[in-house]
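Protein data sheet
==================
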Amino acid sequence: MVRPATTSFHAGLLVIQPQRRKRCAACRRGPLSLLVLEAGVPRCLDCADLGHLVFLPRGDTALTRRSREESTLSAVVVRFNRRRSRYERQGVLVEEGALARAEERCLADAEARRRRRARDARHRATEDTRFAEAFAAEVRRLFPGCPAERARAIALHASLRGSGRVGRSAAGRALTEGAVVSAVVASVRHLDTPYDQLLMSGVQRYEARRRIAAVVETVLGGWRAAGMDVG
């Protein structure tokens, strides 16, 4: 068996997907969907002793690699691309049992990856819960008068994974006072003032903040003062 001229494949046996109708030079079977060139003449897979192999299309690199590892005999299937003037890989021929074993290995890997993703998700959820609790505790320390439920809501909102909010910043992860205060201010601005309505009515952001600044300071001052009263 010889490989087609001009190919750059170095994977052993080559099988061709012909573009023209071809017949086997030995048994005259045709037209052939796959053939092997021997001494420049086409042979069907049966005459080339490859008829027992099954075709695995390209696309799944892991399955292809493992199928070839499991298969005693294999061949690369190629097709000529006229536009590019070259043969291109279309898939492989492997033993049916080898393909089945390779599929089992890939499924086992997929299950292992699924279990790992589940473990990672549980770990992240635990980390996120602990961080939100720590963030809420810091809110309550700085603003003792902030209701516990509100502090938890502020913490959960600010620390949502992937949100890009202040709680996910380096300062937020370090629970710096500036980051915590910023999260509290943002919550007060949106929930305790007409800030959002002002924006919707066309008021520019800086002007809207100026208008509601006194209300924000009143709420924050009240939450701070509650701790002083207790003291």
